[in-house]
Design a protein that fits this description.
The protein has 24 helices and 19 strands. The chain is an alpha/beta fold. The strands form 5 sheets. The protein has an 8-stranded parallel sheet. It has a 4-stranded antiparallel sheet with strand order 6-5-9-10, with no helix packed on it. The chain is globular and about 80 Å long.
Length: 610
């Protein structure tokens, strides 16, 4: 009954929202990046922009590569987001001076966030803790009691990791690696203050995030969180519950038209059988903690609950996702496993669930999401009739129970897609397809098939004159060396991969131009008119939610200078200081007064979304 009521409440009125990574924004009071105090200003901006949902990326504590989807805990919050000014500051002038000096030393308008501020914040936090350790003790004790399932393990994990100078837990001494009870008890007694500090930091983060949630509620803004499907191997979760993970494998994704070798994410896969035997408590506790902060929760890579691409841990990293398999390997088990897990989530939380269902999704996943009224994702550039017309769908053909958007944190923004990727194929994928067909030499066909002037960033744009299957096949099907070095036609049935690539990418821009109702000649460069047209389109779709990335929404204002390709939150399969650090080049205070905020509000209002 609760589940049905919750679903009815969220599916009765179309809503608009904005995805805002907290590391991407700042206020004039920020310490280099937004914190939980600044989150309130972001809530104000979302309200002024006529929207009702603020979506965040995962807020869990991140590891050394600062990836929110590769966290050191499924529970603990990221200390970089703590508001120093929101803490009970001691009267000691030296601490106040350190806070002021830190703030002055940080440049707010840099293109990317420097995560080194996290260590500076933690240093100051330790001093505040030592001076205020007894302040609000009742609240801290209550927090520890309510979160006993994960908090003590996490705090001990953090202190042990510091004791071993950052080494992963699987390289610690055996008594700690294997969690010998007596050894851990002795260590805890010897490091009681350090463990207490970690608990205190998480309590302060909890209080600040909870306060922001109440502020959002007062503004009628819904907070949407993100539940990563996986957790780092070097995490407190895996250390505390290794039985829940298959440590001999890592998760990833199989090869597709966007990633020629697939992807290797590196996190271990779950042993859902063991989690089920435990009554799913691990999963239930994650949801219990998340509902302190969120009204809506996005389930990352939901298809992984049904089956996940599993790669042997010892597989060569350069092979990425090439040599994996789906787990479970028996396809008949997929639907039962995924449905059981989703039902546990629905039955044990007050949060409204959405799901990231992008990529190649088996029918059992799509059908289950529809049956349980869990909205999936519809990313405009991929919402097509892939099999018959190969055209973009009209806005009336979008799924009602879905979240529509122009881009995701793992893609280029829409303007960059339009200028660099629409009408193209991935060069690495095309080369691999050629090598799979020994009669096709990539160097021979490259100049014949592709406009190299318009091919950038590893993408190949089709030549306009390759405007029929006959012309495509003519260039591909004759090649010296196909059979015993004799010139011989390659049978059409051997070229189906190439045909599929061409049918779904040739003249994409021209097709979308028509669907958007834009007049005149199609333009290669994105501009405010094109961007407003596509924003109007997605806001007008049939989808119950339309949630767009802040970088897409700001594009028409000219705030984002230079090549839009540079404004990317994350490039999958890469480790870079530019990942998970991209910042909006305008403060929240200035954004609240900017004309673009009124323009977004007008677009949302015209769409009928509240």
């Amino acid at each position: 009954m609760v589940e049905e009521s919750k679903t009815r409440n969220f599916l009765t009125q179309k809503k608009a929202g904005i995805l805002i990574p907290l590391f991407s924004i700042y206020s004039k009071n920020s310490f280099g990046v937004a914190d939980f105090s600044d989150l309130k200003l972001a809530i104000d901006w979302v309200k002024e922009a006529g929207s009702s949902i603020l979506q965040l990326l995962p807020m869990n504590e991140m590891g050394p590569v600062f990836c929110p989807y590769d966290s050191v805990s499924s529970f603990a919050l990221e200390p970089a987001y703590i508001s120093l000014l929101g803490l009970p500051i001691p009267k000691d002038k030296s601490v106040k001076r350190q806070i002021e000096n830190l703030k002055r030393s940080l440049t707010l308008d840099r293109a990317h966030y420097d995560y080194s501020v996290k260590e500076e914040k933690i240093r100051i936090l330790r001093e505040i803790f030592l001076m205020q350790a007894d302040s609000g003790l009742d609240g801290l004790l209550r927090f520890k009691d309510e979160n006993a399932y994960w908090l003590s393990d996490f705090s001990l994990f953090k202190v042990l990791k510091a004791f071993y100078n950052g080494l992963p837990w699987y390289e610690w001494s055996q008594e700690y690696r294997k969690r010998d009870k007596k050894s851990l008890e002795d260590f805890s007694k010897q490091h009681i203050d350090e463990i207490g500090f970690e608990e205190w930091v998480q309590w302060q983060l909890y209080r600040q995030f909870k306060e922001a949630k109440e502020y959002a509620r007062g503004k009628n803004i819904l907070l949407k969180g993100d539940l990563p499907i996986l957790v780092s191997k070097d995490s407190s979760d895996v250390w505390a519950h290794p039985e829940f993970f298959k440590l001999e494998f890592v998760a990833g994704a199989p090869p597709d038209m966007y990633c020629a070798k697939g992807q290797r994410w590196g996190m271990p896969t779950y042993d859902w059988g063991k989690i089920e035997e435990s009554g799913y408590r691990y999963l239930k506790e994650k949801l219990k903690y998340a509902q302190n902060f969120y009204d809506i929760l996005r389930i990352d890579h939901v298809v992984g609950l049904f089956r996940i691409w599993s790669i042997p841990f010892n597989e060569l990293p350069e092979n990425k996702g090439l040599n994996g398999f789906f787990d479970p390997q028996d396809e008949s088990l997929w639907q039962g496993q995924g449905r059981r897990i989703l039902k546990v989530m629905l039955d044990n939380s007050d949060i409204f669930l959405c799901a990231e269902d992008l990529g190649v999704i088996p029918r059992v996943c799509t059908d289950t999401l529809k049956e349980l009224s869990i909205p999936g994702n519809d990313v405009q550039r991929w919402v097509k009739d892939w099999n018959v017309s190969h055209n973009f769908l009209d806005k009336k053909e979008y799924r009602f129970i879905s979240v529509t958007m122009l881009s995701t944190h793992d893609t280029t923004n829409w303007a960059a897609w339009w200028e660099n990727e629409a009408g193209t194929v991935d060069e690495a994928l095309f080369i691999r397809k050629c090598s799979d067909h020994r009669g096709i030499g990539f160097k021979r066909v490259k100049d014949k098939l592709f406009n190299l002037t318009l091919s950038k960033h590893g993408r190949l744009r089709w030549k306009d004159n390759i405007d029929s299957l006959d012309k495509l096949l003519k260039e591909l099907s004759f090649s010296p060396g196909f059979a015993q070095d004799k010139q011989e036609a390659i049978p059409k049935e051997h070229l189906l991969d190439f045909i599929d690539l061409w049918e779904n990418s040739f003249h994409e821009k021209e097709k979308l131009w028509k669907v958007l109702g834009l007049g005149g000649l199609m333009r290669e460069k994105c501009d405010s008119q094109i961007m407003e047209a596509v924003l109007n389109f997605v806001l007008g779709t049939n989808s119950i939610f339309c949630i767009n990335n802040i970088f897409d929404l700001l594009y028409p204002a000219g705030i984002l200078k230079g090549d839009p390709y540079e404004y990317r939150i994350n490039t999958p399969g890469t480790v870079s200081k530019d990942n998970w650090s991209l910042k909006v080049p305008i403060s929240l205070e200035d954004l609240l007064k900017h004309k673009i905020t009124r323009d977004i509000r007008n677009l949302v209002s015209e769409s009928g979304r509240i």
